[in-house]
Automatic annotation (TrEMBL):
<dbReference type="InterPro" id="IPR000868">
    <property type="entry name" value="Isochorismatase-like_dom"/>
</dbReference>
<dbReference type="Pfam" id="PF00857">
    <property type="entry name" value="Isochorismatase"/>
</dbReference>
<dbReference type="InterPro" id="IPR050272">
    <property type="entry name" value="Isochorismatase-like_hydrls"/>
</dbReference>
<keyword id="KW-0378">Hydrolase</keyword>
<dbReference type="InterPro" id="IPR036380">
    <property type="entry name" value="Isochorismatase-like_sf"/>
</dbReference>
<protein>
    <submittedName>
        <fullName>Nicotinamidase-related amidase</fullName>
    </submittedName>
</protein>
<feature type="domain" description="Isochorismatase-like">
    <location>
        <begin position="3"/>
        <end position="178"/>
    </location>
</feature>
<dbReference type="GO" id="GO:0016787">
    <property type="term" value="F:hydrolase activity"/>
</dbReference>
Length: 181
């Protein structure tokens, strides 16, 4: 079984929303990324990014409609993965256009080209990209592990319910310190 570590939506603009709390979180993410690199695993950094003018966003899309009026440009630093994750150690950056890491991206092609059958997931938010990617990856028959402490959500109750009650139906849910690549 070939494994890939997916670190999702850990880009500058999103991490800034969590303020100082993102410091310890980012330390754990980097530690897991280092372990994955040392084990020779594929590390995929997934980001959400739109073209100038955001033509991909429908006004009917409640989640992304607010992004249509944002003043930041499509090529600004805010959409880039955090600098601590861009380590130059073979990580791949995938750009998506919707909530799931698979939606509007070339993730599936990359995973197939590396014969990946198992995904280890972390990201912001638990109720957004992590939930959508767990569901879609399970439907695509990937073996799944969610690193519970590498997921953040603005709503702690949503995070708790998903990691303790929903995700275990389709994934192993563990702390990042317990993950052995």
């Amino acid at each position: 079984m070939t494994t890939a570590l997916l670190l999702m939506d850990l880009q500058n603009t999103i991490l800034e929303r969590y303020g100082p709390a993102s410091g310890d979180f980012l330390d754990r993410v980097v530690a897991a990324q280092e372990r994955a690199e040392q084990a020779g695993l594929l590390v995929v950094l997934v980001r959400v990014k739109f073209a100038p003018g955001r033509p991909e966003i429908s006004p009917r899309n409640k989640m992304f409609a607010a992004a249509r009026s944002m003043s930041v440009g499509a090529d600004d630093r805010g959409s880039e993965p955090h600098d601590r994750l861009l380590r130059g150690k073979g990580e791949v950056v995938v750009t998506k256009k919707r909530v799931s890491a698979f939606a509007g991206s070339d993730l599936e092609v990359i995973l197939r080209s590396h014969d990946v059958t198992e995904l280890v997931l972390g990201g912001i938010s638990t109720g957004g990209v992590v939930l959508s990617t767990v569901r879609e990856a399970a439907d695509r028959d990937y073996a799944l592990t969610v690193l519970e402490d590498l997921c953040l959500d603005a709503d702690e109750e949503v995070h708790r319910v998903l990691t303790q009650k929903v995700f275990p139906r389709q994934a192993e849910v563990i702390a990042s310190a317990d993950w052995r690549p």
